[in-house]
Request: fold
Amino acid sequence: MVTTVTKLGTWGSVFGRRSKTVKAIAEDLRALVIGLHPETVEVPRKGDKAVGFGFGEKKMSESYCYLMPQTDRVNIGFLWGATLEDPNALLEGSGKKLRHVKVFDQETARSAKVAQLVHLAMEERRLGLEVKTSNKTKKVKA
Reply:
């Protein structure tokens, strides 16, 4: 079951005033993450204007991805994205660690290609933190 940490914000404080399209994309991405990792820790961060997902509430060490609303899309970001395989060339960005995918529609939000990146990011953090595999963690084929 998802654990939501609300001391820094809520889902509504990050996505509440967004367009219907952005909200729908965000909800689909959230469902994708939770479907892959039902025990994820969700941390809405009003100040960052993002919602993180991971194995704990620490942003840079325990999180594997985040959702950040934009005017016309939702960016799904990967905190260790520079280390991920990207077989479908979806990742953007040039930072030392961070990468993101710009998601403009629900079809992309539900895609196996995005699911594969979430899974890879989740596995990278699981191994990095030496977290034992849960029976509820799901594998993805793209």
Summary: The radius of gyration is 14 Å. The helical segments are 11-15, 20-36, 59-62, 106-109, 112-129.
